[in-house]
Amino acid sequence: MKPLLLYFLTVCSLLSCELAAQTPTPAFPTAEGFGKWATGGRGGQVVEVTRLDDDELGNLEGSLRWALKQHSGQPLTIVFRTSGTIDLNGHDLRSKRSNLTIAGQTAPGDGICIKGGNVNLGGSYNVIVRFLRMRVGLRNGTDFIPGASLSLENGGNFIIDHCSFSWSAEENTGFYDNTHSTVQWCIASEGLYNAGHGKGARSYGSVWGGRKATYHHNLLAHNVSRSPRFGTSTKNDRHMLVDYVNNVNYNYGRQNACYGGENELGAAGSVHINLVNNYYKPGPAYPGERRSNLVRASYEVGAQHHYFSHWHLSGNYIEGEANASINEDNYLGLEIEEYVEHLPSTTIDSLKVDHIAVEEPVSTQTAHEAYAQVLEQVGAFPRDSVDRRLIEEVRTGTAVASSSFNAYRVTGIIDKPSDAGGYPVLHTYHVVNDTDHDGIADYWERANGLDATDAEDRNRRSTEGYTYLEVYLNGLAGEYLDGFVYPLIDTVVTNSPTPFHDPALHISAYLDQSGHRMVVKSQARVQTITLFDELGRRVKHVTAPALTSVNLMDVPSGWYVVQFETDTHSIQRMRLVK
């Protein structure tokens, strides 16, 4: 019987492995929407960006442009060994590169910003981009640069996560004529207004379309228009389906700053747009006492006009007494004047649909819940001074930046980056060792049973289907898998008693009477708090512009090391017994 039993167990094990192999693995644990199944550079090669300078031909070894040219035809993951700003000097960075992961979370220190040119990944498929800032700006601080901060058209199966886009003289981002895509937890802000564009003043947020496209938990702020501009049905986006959920729109400059969705193809095409549980907050550029609309349904004059776009609106909220009726009935915020102008018989019911089926729905909160969550988590981390200022302005309903050349004064609508303080210096610190240059820090490899001199073990697979390289990269983003150790970065933990007080940093922390909330008091701004268990595994990771408490209800009783990091990158640790 034993041989038979062994054979049976072996067959079952093989079947289990085969079923596991057939189960798709998301791009990363928090990926959602139509682009969540992108695999990027999974299982492929790794290239390190070690320098910030750039040349138009991409011949500088270690530069980002050079990295994108390596290992042609193979899956590729790009990691960063430096932080700082990459200046493209007016030369757009164009790369038609499929099966690609750009892991901005690997930058040691303040992170990466790309300026001075458009990053264009047009024609690329199966792409993952995370934790980057792209702020085009002006050449030499004065001259117009065409194009979006990031554009990806005529591609598909991609996800853009936790990126910050701003200061483009065109729209900040352009994603359309694609299939199966997600843009999540990103910022599109401060499009440049009077910046030398040949068509005149702009300040545009983004153009977002696509066949099966998800846009969720993003922040659009300080844009006059295209906030966003939805795409249209075209020969490439013949049947457009956009799921626009839990986004925050602040300080737009027009009543109809959000618009689009034309059905250009008529009977040959279709447009379906979900507008669900989004939060609109008027600001100084268009005050809340004036009526806003949720969206203007645009009409294509040359189309077969008896075919309408289809809109589903529910759960959206606009601040301001003038918008109370729209909050009661969202369809009162669907502007259809363009349709009525050409088709006088058009009514809201002509475009309204009660439900639009979405194959890859996202985790959805109420508009108010999403507003709070977006402000806590959106954008590239660690946040630079640009995003910290922006988030504070959204919270307080203010705008500090002032325009140089036009009538928008102290409203958040700007003409050039220097109007908003310019580019902050991004420092490099917490540099890790990676002996075999496989993208994984040596300390993490040692803690998880890998060989820090063997680059091939990066592609070993977890039971969830991720490579060990991906498990490490996801851990840097605060996404942890059971069975892996996420240790402190090559440092010795110094224990301190609880309650804890550090007179040098002026930080004190203690558990409240419930024993489930840690209260933090500090003269410095604490922006990151991480808890590690006795094995060095991260059990909780919280980031915010200024942390004053952390909910530990989900943390079991036990012994922990708590790490505090301030806005000046000072780090202090304490011993906590819960």
From TrEMBL:
It comes from the Bacteria. PROSITE patterns: PROKAR_LIPOPROTEIN. Residues 1-21 form the signal peptide. Keywords: Glycoprotein, Lyase, Metal-binding, Signal. Gene3D superfamilies: Single-stranded right-handed beta-helix, Pectin lyase-like. InterPro entries: AmbAllergen, Pectin_lyas_fold, Pectin_lyase_fold/virulence, Polysaccharide_Lyase_1, Secre_tail. PANTHER family: PECTATE LYASE C-RELATED. NCBIfam families: Por_Secre_tail. This is Pectate lyase.
